[in-house]
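lol forgot to send this yesterday, sorry. struct tokens for the thing we talked abt
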């Protein structure tokens, strides 16, 4: 997978700009607040139909403009693909090879990227939200079924939570099983895919971690709850867990069990990394998980995703930077940094200087 061109118009602080990327390493460099992250955010949007952090597309539109337009010319294993997004305040339109897509799930898989930012480096020490986000984004890109199940699950979950706040006890008790039937169907799809994903991810992450630490540390990752069997059995297990928690859910006014509460158990050299690992260890662990994610993409889709490294080099020590560059060699990588010389050590790359929303020749 590679992105050949990226076009931005009225997107964030860009008025109009075109980026040409080469195979291998591309480095966007420049001072702070010049538009490096904005550029890779556009890449992320064209891959996932979502922005990096924000919930409202409006912020993506250049201040004072009405609409933003971004597009990428890419090449995947099937050939050339163009993805365009037209973003207005209240609506957006995404086209793949010129045809408008009806739903976001149809976008997934055309252009894939694995995105890596300082936030992701805190994947292990931060709260469970980050770790669920990691699974959700990663699995969605190779499984539209997962993405769709997740959307439907969240919708029913909202309705269930609203019901839990209803003061009519008998109405609530009559209605809950009906919601739960549906909720568990989608939850089971989510759980099953997560379990499969983590079973693949764990041994690869372990290998990456050994590579990054020269064999000094081990790493293992799994879901923090155990599930057995196929989707139907998982749905039954979840239904039981939900009904066991009726009283608690009613008291708290929200749903306390289910995939929206699941977390990862991460073990580094025999200790619970979330609670006890040092900052250096958790960063290396996060790097291992992300590099494993890249590898899984390759296995599931037959090609490497585009790797985006936004500002991560400054967070890593010299040895890990070198290891990282060594590891990603040969994949198309878009890397942002403030000082090229400090991170690249003469690596062969396409350097692009960004200044105030423009490419500086
Ligand atoms: N919608 C927008 N319109 C105009 N400027 C924006 C918009 N959103 C963000 N910016 C500007 O973009 C700049 C930050 O760009 P960013 O890509 O995060 O910088 P960096 O190069 O440090 O990664 C800030 O100056 C911010 O004001
Ligand atoms: Mg930035």
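and heres what i got for the seq, position by position
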């Amino acid at each position: 997978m590679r992105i050949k061109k990226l076009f931005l118009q009225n997107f964030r602080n860009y008025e109009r700009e075109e980026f040409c990327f080469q195979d291998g390493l591309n480095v966007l460099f420049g001072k702070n607040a010049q538009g490096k992250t904005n550029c890779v955010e556009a890449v992320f949007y064209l891959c996932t139909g979502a922005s990096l952090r924000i919930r409202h597309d409006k912020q993506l539109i250049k201040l004072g403009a009405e609409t933003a337009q971004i597009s990428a010319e890419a090449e995947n294993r099937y050939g050339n693909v163009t993805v365009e997004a037209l973003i207005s305040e209240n609506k957006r339109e995404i086209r793949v090879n010129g045809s408008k897509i009806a739903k976001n799930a149809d976008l997934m898989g055309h252009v894939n990227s694995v995105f890596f930012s300082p936030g992701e480096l805190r994947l292990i020490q931060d709260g469970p939200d980050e770790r669920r986000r990691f699974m959700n984004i990663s699995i969605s890109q190779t499984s539209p079924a997962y993405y769709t199940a997740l959307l439907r699950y969240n919708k029913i979950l909202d309705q269930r939570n609203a019901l839990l706040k209803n003061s009519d006890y008998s109405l609530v008790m009559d209605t809950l099983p009906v919601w739960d039937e549906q909720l568990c169907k989608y939850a089971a799809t989510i759980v099953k895919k997560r379990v499969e994903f983590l079973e693949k991810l764990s041994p690869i992450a372990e290998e990456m971690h050994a590579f990054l630490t020269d064999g000094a540390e081990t790493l293992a990752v799994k879901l923090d709850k155990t599930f057995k069997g196929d989707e139907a059995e998982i749905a039954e297990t979840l239904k039981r867990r939900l009904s066991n928690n009726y009283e608690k859910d009613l008291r708290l006014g929200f749903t306390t069990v289910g995939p929206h509460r699941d977390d990862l158990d991460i073990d580094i050299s025999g200790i619970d990394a979330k609670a006890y690992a040092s900052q250096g260890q958790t960063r290396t662990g996060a790097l291992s998980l992300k590099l494993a994610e890249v590898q899984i993409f390759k296995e599931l889709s037959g090609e490497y995703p585009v790797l985006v490294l936004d500002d991560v080099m400054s967070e890593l020590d010299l040895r890990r930077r070198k290891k990282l560059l060594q590891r990603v060699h040969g994949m198309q990588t878009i890397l942002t940094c403030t000082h090229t010389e400090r991170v690249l050590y003469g690596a062969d790359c396409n350097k692009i200087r960004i200044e105030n929303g423009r490419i500086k020749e």
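The CA atoms of residues 25 and 347 lie 8 Å apart. anyway ping me if u want another try
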